[in-house]
Design brief:
The chain is of the alpha/beta class. It contains 15 helices and 17 strands. Bound molecules: iron/sulfur cluster.
Amino acid sequence: MNQAPMQSTTNRRAGLGVYVQVPFCQAKCTYCNFATGVARAETYDPYAEAVCQEILRHGALYRAAGLKRWQSETPRFAAETLYVGGGTPSLLDPAALARIVHAVRDVFPGPFAETTLEADPETITEKKACAWRDAGFSRISLGAQSFDDQELKAVGRRHRRADIYSANETLRRVGFENLSFDLIAGLPRQTPESWQASLDALLGLAPEHISIYMLELDEGSRLGRESLAGGARYGVPALPEDDATADFYEMACEQLAGRGYEHYEISNWALPGRRSVHNGKYWRRDPYLGFGAGAHSFDGTERFSNAHVPADYAGAIRDGRAAIDRRETLDPGQSLDEELFLGLRQLEGIDLAEIESRYRVKLGDKVRPLAEEGLVEMVGGRLRLVASRLTVSNEVFVRLLA
Ligand code: SF4
């Protein structure tokens, strides 16, 4: 086994994270800027087959593509996590998902601490849930987003509140003991009352893990374009004010803490021992490999990613070529920016002295004014965001990275 190519810049050995992207959705949500889309169901199986081929042959594909860090004929790196995300991977035939899991396990030795599948509530049936469990998934991440039917409808989600309850009940019944729920603060038509109702409903289900995102408008989404160009079709006039969205987030911080959830990353909370192992790799800049259209990979120094268009991706794999269309070797300045931006997302913060020493920089002149303004603090040698100012974390990142 050749571990050398997968050293992270911290020289800390970490198990590999494996990510598989399934870029298909039933409908495009109005706020979504991801490279995902609606496709005919007949395309799902050939896509899954391309993903399996890419996983099984990735050593040869990478070598042929000139990824110098992949010299071994059949690189076998110990993997710690598998995360199948999207899109809506729960749309795939469970047998296709099982083939993907088996391909990953064939190529990468475990033990796998966590195997996650993203699922949308309306796609979950008992038969599928049993098949996912039997395929080896240990964790389901559920795109709940809201428990308010008007809000769900306004952004084009297919599921309704009742589907979330039904999905939760099904997943628990078949034995899943690790569920994560996503909510979005700042959706069109959201009010303090409807947000409180969503929080109450969520906490009533007591998932092991919760992700809460504040809606950010991006011109790659229909909602974002409408906000720039004007109009009311997608609900821009019904968007809460930024201050209201920040209040929603702070309500969540307070109430989740009161129910025993540890706030460990800006957008993530977990019951003890239930942090996302896979996502932690992104924030710590541990190595990960991504398979599928648009999937990203990182080996500690170089980032590379596949073609976004599923047909282009699958065509390259079918032709025996790597589907990589972007590569970037990070210089020390870029790596430092990532250490700060990703590291500070974790509420335990970063070891400032260690980072200064590793990158041979002094960050005091940037950190001091932020600390004087109460945006960051040093605690036990670690620099971290001040918990009560997380809603302005973007300002900290802009000033720290400038
Ligand atoms: S389900 Fe997720 S990936 Fe698909 S369109 Fe909606 S937000 Fe985007």
